[in-house]
Amino acid sequence: MHFKKQINSGLTFIRVFIINSIIMQFLKAISLSIVLALLFNRAHAQSGSTQPAIISVDLNSKTGTMYPFWAWFGHDEPNYTYMKDGRKLLTELSKLSPTPVYMRVHNLLTSGDGKAALKWGSTNAYTEDANGKPMYNWHIVDSIFDAYIQRGMKPYAQIGFMPEALSTRPTPYRHYWKPGDNYNDVYTGWTYPPKDYNKWEELVYQWVKHSVSRYGKKEVESWYWEVWNEPNIGYWKGTMQEFFKLYDYAAHGLKRALPTARIGGPEIAGGSSPGGMKFLRAFIKHCIADTNYATGKVGTPLEVISFHAKGQPRLKDGHVRMNMGTQLKDIAEGFKIVASYPQTKNLPIVIGESDPEGCAACGMFTNPENAYRNGTMYSSYTAASFARKYLLADSLQVNLLGAVSWSFEFEDQPWFFGFRDLATNGVDKPVLNVFRMLGMMTGDRIKAESKRMYSVNQIIDSGVRAVNTDIGALASKDKNSAGIMVWNYHDDDIQTDGEPIEITVKGLPQKTIKIIQYRIDQTHSNSYEVWKKMGSPKEPTAAQITELEKAGQLQTIGEVENRKATNGNLAIKITLPRQGISLLKLSW
In angstroms, what CA-CA distances link 426 with 73, 81, 87, 300, 432? Predict the structure, then answer.
């Protein structure tokens, strides 16, 4: 019996050993499969799919209008506006859109000597004499607005920040922040509530009255005004109710000067910021139903609603990984809030800052996650994200008026320093050419479908992180032309060879179709790559600057084609590298 037990124990041991061995071999096989799959996916992501992406465009299927909500720009430093490179860039921006381009800038009422600095600016519009009597000086504000009006542009006029003489805590007032410093160091005396709200109201009244006198009633009626910036974070050192009071008095002063002027807010930092969307709801409720601090009556003027939305790039395995999902989520949430109130659902919406991340003046050397800004990643992100803003506005049935790219230029700074700007030292960066492409798309938006285009919900949920890139299209049709913008985007800033794309266009007239392809990639419309090939000169020569300026313009690829449509159909084949953008301009 004892011997039999030993045999049984031995057999049990052998069985367990065999089973364990089988399991171990199985796990090893699975592990190897996983490793091989990961290696395959990585190689596949780097090389791109060999199967063509299929895009279909139907010129007879209208989805909306190609309204240029993208033609809105802004920046912190107002004094750059009338400086050499600022004037040059404004001229270029003014030519982008079939409708006037709007500009939003901070610090229009900030006290100081008018000298520009990073995240700083001043106009000295308001001071007081020794007896506390207000004194107004509109010279610098006029210089800023004149630069717009002379070019057919319009201010999205920000009423802020607090003049030193009105601040409840004026000291320290002027900050000297630089990249790498604590961001909170910028929030000095200009962020505080006024010590006298009646003087604050009178300041706004005098400003608007002066503007009407200088530019005419009809011109000022075409502007939009808004109060402050991101009052739910450090830009405002008062309470939420104190901000509502600030807004009420500003709106009252504006309406006293020009009853037909349009005002709104609250320009909150997005839903990912502290209390962002909660603040937006409270602000709307205040304007609809609360007692106005300035008039004592119920309700406050509200003609435009604004909030901000930003992405969140990070470093991942030695490269930048973008996060468009965070930005789109904030936009969707803001749209839903506005649409949820009967009193606001049809009001125009301005996304007062709509960018891949938050700090325009934080360069890539202090913030390496911002290294995407000089090259084509910024371009492809912009194309892919703006197309989704059209889709979100359509799906949620809101009145999207503008989406401000908080991106301008930084005067007298190092070349390609990695700021979030449209140009460096007067040379256009690749991202500006996306807006040139958008400006060539007019008329109606038409149906464009791609089997490789991620849905908005997919991007919000998990980004563009899978093997396949996001190859999508935005299309337009006018009387004698059509435009098809195609991008090849991925959150990971990695360059690959081109992917084949087949585009079928339906609904063309039975005529010869002229096709021109515009391109942004490593070798087209890309001043940054040209600068690097020069050896990244810190002080380019005059000849090099001329070459860089040429490289910064929107360029074509290939020859102009003349094709005959067959039964109104036309097939177009292109190859587009990762982070590249093409605009196919068809005319007849």
Answer: 17, 13, 9, 43, 12
Domain assignment present for residue 46? The answer is no
As a three-state string, the secondary structure of 319-358 is: EEECCHHHHHHHHHHHHHHHHCCCCCCCCEEEEEEEECCC
Number of domains forming the structure of the chain: 3
Do the domain assignments include residue 44? no
**d(Cα 240, Cα 246) in Å, to the nearest integer?**
10
pLDDT by residue (tens digit) across 492-534? 999 998 999 999 999 999 889 999 999 999 999 999 999 999 9
Same domain membership, residue 371 and residue 238: yes
Q: Which of 408, 439, 470 is the last residue of a domain?
A: 439
User: Cα separation of 257 and 225, whole Å?
Assistant: 13
pLDDT in the model for residue 45: 43
Give the Cβ contact number of residue 39 at 10 Å. 10
d(CA 358, CA 80): 20
Contact predicate 109/159, CB 8 Å: yes
**CB-based contact 108:78 (threshold 8 Å):** yes
How far is 237 from 240, CA to CA, in rounded Å?
9
What sign for the dihedral angle of Cα 53, 59, 63, 69? positive
The answer to whether the CB of 515 falls within 8 A of the CB of 560 is yes
6 lies in which domain range?
1-34
127 CB contacts (<8 Å, ≥6 apart)? Answer: 111, 134, 135, 137, 163, 164, 165
List, for the chain, all residue ranges whose pLDDT scores fall below the cut of 70.
Answer: 1-49
Strand 512-520 versus strand 126-128 pairing type = unpaired
Residues 226, 96 share a domain: yes
Q: Provide the pLDDT for residue 278.
A: 95
Integer CA distances (angstroms), 336 to 67, 342, 405, in order: 21, 12, 21
User: Which secondary structure element, helix H or strand E, spans residue 54, and what is its range?
Assistant: strand 53-65
DSSP character string of 295-310: TSSB----SEEEEEEE
Output the CA angle 543-547-548, nearest 5 degrees: 115
pLDDT tens sequence across 292-336? 999 999 999 999 999 999 999 999 999 999 999 999 999 999 999
Q: DSSP class of residue 313?
A: -
Give the DSSP letter string of 83-126. SHHHHHHHHHHHTT-SSPPEEEES-TT--S----BTTB-----E
Cα–Cα dist 81/546, whole Å: 23
Within 260-317, residue ranges assigned H as helices are 276-289
